[in-house]
Design goal:
two-stranded antiparallel sheet, Four Helix Bundle (Hemerythrin (Met), subunit A)
Length: about 160
C-alpha cells in the first residue's frame, strides 16, 4: 500500500471515529421513534376531538344580536379563558393527528392540517392575551381551514366529491 493510500485510510478511520456522538456516562441513549397506532378513523377524530373543540372556540367569540339586544359570547372569567385556551390546543394538535401515517391524504391534506395548527395557535395566543377580537379572528381562521378541507375531501350528499 502506498504512503498516500495509507494516509487516506488513516484519515478516513479518524473521521469515522470522530463522527459518532459519545454518550456521557449515565446519560440515557435516545430510543427509536415509537410506532404510531391510530385508534380512531378520521371521521371519529373529527366528531370526538376536533369538532367539539372548534365549537367551543366558536361559541366563545363574537356577538349574538336579536330583537332583545346584543349578547357578547366572549369569556368573562379566568376559567372561561382557560377553557378556550385548552380547546384551542386541541384544535392545533388535531392538525398533527390528521397528518399521522395512515390519515394524511397528500399535499393538500397536509396543507389544510397545517392551517389548522396555525389557526389553533392563533386562538391559543388570543386566549392567553384575553383578546376577544383576536379570538373572533382566530375562530374565523379555524373555520376557513375546516371549510377548505371539507370542500376538497368530504364526501358530499350526492357522493360526487372527495376522498372520504
Amino acid at each position: 500500500m502506498s504512503r498516500s493510500t495509507r494516509v487516506i485510510v488513516i484519515l478516513c478511520a479518524f473521521l469515522l471515529a470522530c463522527r459518532s456522538d459519545p454518550v456521557a456516562p449515565g446519560a440515557q441513549v435516545p430510543e427509536a421513534e415509537p410506532a404510531y397506532r391510530s385508534v380512531a378513523s378520521v371521521k371519529e377524530v373529527m366528531l370526538s376531538i376536533l369538532d367539539p373543540a372548534a365549537d367551543a372556540i366558536w361559541d366563545s367569540a363574537g356577538f349574538i344580536i336579536t330583537e332583545e339586544g346584543e349578547t357578547d359570547l366572549s369569556p368573562t372569567s379566568e376559567e372561561g379563558w382557560t377553557a378556550v385556551r385548552s380547546n384551542a390546543v386541541v384544535v392545533a394538535e388535531s392538525g398533527n393527528l390528521l397528518m399521522m401515517p395512515g390519515r394524511a391524504l397528500g399535499p393538500d391534506w397536509v396543507a389544510f392540517s397545517e392551517a389548522l395548527i396555525t389557526s389553533g395557535r392563533q386562538a391559543i395566543e388570543a386566549a392567553e392575551a384575553r383578546d376577544a377580537s383576536a379570538l373572533f379572528d382566530a375562530g374565523g381562521e379555524v373555520y376557513q381551514a375546516c371549510r377548505a378541507c371539507h370542500d376538497r375531501f368530504m364526501v358530499q350528499v350526492s357522493g360526487t366529491n372527495g376522498a372520504r
